[in-house]
Amino acid sequence: MSDGPWLVVGLGNPGDRYAGNRHNVGQMVLDELAARAGASFGARVGSLGRRPQATAVEVRMGTRPGGVPGPRVLLAKPTTYMNESGGPVAGLARYLDVPPERVVMVHDELDIPFADVRLKKGGGEGGHNGLRDTTKALGTKDYVRVRVGVGRPPGRMDPADYVLRDFGAAERKELPWLVDRAADAVEAVVLEGLEAAQQRFHTKA
């Protein structure tokens, strides 16, 4: 795979009010990836062109044979609301000269059962406002998505209300495992390529 740089974005809404919501699981995965690299999200990115609104940290992901550091990866969490995610993503991609195939969006997915992780490139946004705005801003659907399953809402609950609620008590017990698995999936995409990562994460044990 290319040395990059890669742009990995965790979608969510800003502020403590939303931090534990299902809609913010993408940002939870980014926190895990930063922790694995011994890094932390610092000051808001504000000097890149039109001031992309995000917090970001650059890391080296993985290690090659001989102890050589892996590809450069910018981990970014937009500080805009979900439906305005596209501007920060497109701004960072332009500044870093990252093509769509090296943009990885990590996000919640209603159409995947809780605790499952699926990977794809391109395709529809499935009603996800963060993805819809990203597609519009990038001018293409051909970026990589790491889809973190949160499941469908129970009964007749509005899906918008469901994703803006915190994970339930039973889910929270499994949440660290899910976040860890999604972080593994991001690393697999960067280090092994999308097809190899799909074979691993789409295969039932």
From TrEMBL:
Residue numbers marked as site, Discriminates between blocked and unblocked aminoacyl-tRNA: N13
Active site: H23
GO CC list: cytoplasm
Primary enzyme class: hydrolase
Alphabetized UniProt keyword annotations: Cytoplasm, Hydrolase, RNA-binding, tRNA-binding
Molecular-function GO terms, alphabetical: peptidyl-tRNA hydrolase activity; tRNA binding
Subcellular localization: Cytoplasm
Primary location group: cytoplasm
Gene Ontology terms describing biological process: protein quality control for misfolded or incompletely synthesized proteins; rescue of stalled ribosome
InterPro entries listed in its UniProt record: Pept_tRNA_hydro, Pept_tRNA_hydro_CS, Pept_tRNA_hydro_sf
Gene3D superfamilies: Peptidyl-tRNA hydrolase (3.40.50.1470)
Enzyme Commission number(s) of this protein: 3.1.1.29
Catalyzed reaction equations: an N-acyl-L-alpha-aminoacyl-tRNA + H2O = an N-acyl-L-amino acid + a tRNA + H(+)
Residues reported in the UniProt entry to bind tRNA: Y18, Y81, N83, N129
UniProt-annotated site: Stabilizes the basic form of H active site to accept a proton, residues: D108
Stored PROSITE patterns: PEPT_TRNA_HYDROL_1 (PS01195), PEPT_TRNA_HYDROL_2 (PS01196)
Description of how the protein assembles with itself and partners: Monomer.
Family: Belongs to the PTH family.
Role noted for this protein: Hydrolyzes ribosome-free peptidyl-tRNAs (with 1 or more amino acids incorporated), which drop off the ribosome during protein synthesis, or as a result of ribosome stalling. Catalyzes the release of premature peptidyl moieties from peptidyl-tRNA molecules trapped in stalled 50S ribosomal subunits, and thus maintains levels of free tRNAs and 50S ribosomes.
Protein name: Peptidyl-tRNA hydrolase
Organism whose genome encodes this protein: Cellulomonas shaoxiangyii
